[in-house]
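Caffeine dehydrogenase subunit gamma: structure tokens wanted.
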Amino acid sequence: MNPISIQVNGRGFSRHAEPRMHLGDFLRDELRLTGTHLGCEHGVCGACTVLVNGQPTRSCITFAVACEGQEVTTIEGYDDDAVMQRLRPAFTRHHALQCGFCTPGMLTTARDIVLRLPHADEARVRLELSGNLCRCTGYQGIVDAILDVLQQQRDTPDAQVEKLRQTLSLPRTIALGPVPTPSQAQPPARSPAKPPTADPVAAAEMAEVDPVAMAKAKAKGNAIEVHFDVPYPADQVWEFMGDLPAVASCLPGATIDSHEGERVKGTIAIKFGPMSAAFAGAARLERDDAARRAVLRGAGQDSLSKSRTQGDITYRLEALTAGNTRVHVDMIYALQGPLAQFSRSGLVKDFVRRMVADFGRQITRRLGGQTVASNEPQPTVSVAGMMWSVLWNRIRGWFGKPPQL
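Answer:
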């Protein structure tokens, strides 16, 4: 147990905490400040957002001991805040809250938007809010409330708000706690962080697939094993699947921008209901010709939501007969960012199985000599149609009927 001295909402506190206790748990359990809500506890939903030295911070993934000597502001500490005095009535006026679970984190993010982006339009406000999830409102009321406050400040400037904006423009840092002595147990050192880049393809090239992250993803259930059959000899199928551009043409939503040896850059576009994403990234293929086994290791980033993904796709060929081949596909994936909420859905796994089955049919079509015409549109991931098919197959399964692929 380590003693922590911390400033919270203008008051000093000193408490003991386990080294692995997160700030959100410390605030709720030790200081009884239960206005900070814990949702996903993975830094995705934004409900736990608080200020640390004036910066919005996910308290569910920030260690309490790292905040030694820092200044933390929770939803309980905004009573005299000039921005919050405008935001709270605006949220009420525009019906920007229902159950209220996301509201503390949403207000904290909204306050940051008002101070940091005085000329933000609706598109920018929506982008800034993409890290805060709300299951109730549809976001329109929240967006309208923030735009309302921004307009108020333009029409009738509040001197206190302007002063806060000037303070915000100063360099800000979050200093970690004191350096521990060598006698204290330390986790294994990590490699230095790579510099950020605005280019998602370059970011994906820099990112190596982390085996530890992959192991955690598999433990969490982010793994899928599927197979499909192709009515052609194994040698012919293996040769075809070594041609990355040809394989990409069979995968809905995939496009290849460049190809050099066993490395490839490209984009996979998906549309999940009203949400769309385009993961631009890079991958490399490792082949074992003797075993007819290969691993495609890749990473990508969606430029809009800033969600990142990495994963391994292992496939191996099994000769069923002289003219029939079974392709076994094992997928392990990790997803970070706003889209991570969809990564553990059973329907998503069913959807992926369906997409792989369609991928197998496209390979059969290409091996049969049916080339893609120049005027033929690139196939896309039609989640709506596939999802209806997935649901129908589940219903058929409830009544003992075999699923249709």
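DSSP finds twelve helices and 13 strands in the chain. The first helix runs from residue 23 to 30.

Cheers.
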